[in-house]
């Protein structure tokens, strides 16, 4: 049975930053690989996915912290 990179990182308690450093890949490259894989599963390009907040900031009311 094969395991995903995410599952292996969780199992070995390795963060993306640690994976980047230990593999010699830049963090942005590791993140891009993840985004490409996620988009492929959804049948989209990564440009077609909004990766930010679920609710746009302008729709949150209040005056912020303190």
Model description:
The chain has 66 residues and is mostly helical. The chain has a domain at 5-48. It has three helices and no strands. α2 packs across α3 (27-42). It is globular.
Note the topology:
Elements: H1 5-12, H2 16-23, H3 27-42
Keywords:
single chain; 66 residues; mainly alpha; globular
Distance separating the two termini: 51 Å
Q: Unreliable stretches, pLDDT < 50, 5 or more residues?
A: none
Count of DSSP H/I helices:
3
| Sheet/helix structural class | mainly alpha
- Arithmetic mean of pLDDT: 79
What overall form do the CA principal axes indicate?
A: globular
Radius of gyration equals 16 Å
Sheet with most strands = none
Order of helices and strands: HHH
What percentage of residues falls in helices of 4 or more residues? 40-55%
Beta fraction: under 5%
Q: How many strands? A: 0
In short:
By secondary structure, the chain is an all-alpha fold. 48% of the residues lie in helices and 0% in strands.
């Amino acid at each position: 049975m094969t395991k995903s990179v995410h599952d292996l990182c969780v199992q070995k308690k390795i963060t993306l930053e640690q994976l980047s450093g230990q593999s010699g890949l830049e963090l942005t490259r590791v993140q891009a690989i993840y985004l490409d894989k996620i988009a492929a599963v959804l049948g989209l390009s990564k440009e077609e996915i909004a990766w930010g907040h679920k609710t746009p900031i302008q729709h949150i009311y209040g005056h912020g912290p303190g």
